[in-house]
Amino acid sequence: VNALVPSPTSSSLSVSPTSAMVGDTVTFTAVVTSGGGTPTGTVLFTIAGSPSGPFTLTNGSVAVPSSFLTAGNFSSSFVYTPSGNFQASSSNTSFFVITKASTTTNLGSSLDPAALGASVTFTASVASGFAGTPGGTMNFLADGSPLCTSVPMSLGSAQCTTAALTTGVRQIQANYSGNGTYGASSDTYFQTINPP
């Protein structure tokens, strides 16, 4: 009795969308075809360097949704393992981009106006539509010159206290650095310092 020769297969991977923000859903669709019928079996994805699966094919395909917490450029592929009279095959490599979550920085003052030599605390708070608390650091500037540098974020905000501002209207800027998940942002506050 002649054994049946397994039918060759072709594996194809598509990614939708190919560009998404952290937390958004990206769908990876595996399609396996063959001239010998509809392939059965499983596929094992490699997504952003990590294995995912195996997942069972239904009518020759399977779609897997996923989301990501870190921004960057990534690749994906899959390997098909047959359960019937089909040959194994590997997919193409598909690339996708995850962008950082947008943020908004809001800068305020503890005392405005303030007298020359008075201590003033500037608080910069960072908000984002993405769940979680933005981390990283904040840089404060006064009229373009460093005031407080690389202040660690704590519970989504950072503070800078100074008594060194000169008289007049001082332009205070808070620049949020962002991190692997959250994008950078900034805000400006105009602080009045009165003569003693």
Please tell me the overall pLDDT.
Answer: 95
Largest sheet: 6 strands, mixed
Task: Please provide the ordered H/E string of secondary-structure elements.
Answer: EEEEEEEEEEEEEEEEE
Please give the radius of gyration in angstroms. 27 Å
* Total count of helical runs of at least 4 residues: 0
**Count of extended strands:** 17
* Oligomer designation: single chain
Low-confidence residue ranges: none
Helical residues, percent:
under 10%
Alpha-beta content class: mainly beta
Which shape, going by the Cα principal axes? rod-shaped
First-to-last CA distance = 106 Å
Strand percentage: over 45%
Key phrases:
0% helix; five-stranded mixed sheet; 17 strands; six-stranded mixed sheet; 196 residues; rod-shaped; mainly beta
Set down the secondary structure blueprint.
Blueprint: E1 10-16, E2 19-21, E3 26-33, E4 41-47, E5 50-56, E6 61-66, E7 72-82, E8 89-90, E9 94-99, E10 103-109, E11 114-115, E12 120-128, E13 137-142, E14 145-152, E15 157-162, E16 168-176, E17 185-194
Short description:
By secondary structure, the protein is mainly beta.
Note down, in words, how this protein is organized.
With 196 residues, this protein is mostly beta strands. The protein is built from no helices and 17 strands. The protein has strands at residues 10-16, 19-21, 26-33, 41-47, 50-56, 61-66, 72-82, 89-90, 94-99, 103-109, 114-115, 120-128, 137-142, 145-152, 157-162, 168-176, 185-194. Strand 7 and strand 8 (89-90) form a beta hairpin. It is rod-shaped and about 100 Å long. The protein starts with 9 loop residues before the first strand and ends with a strand. The mean pLDDT is 95.
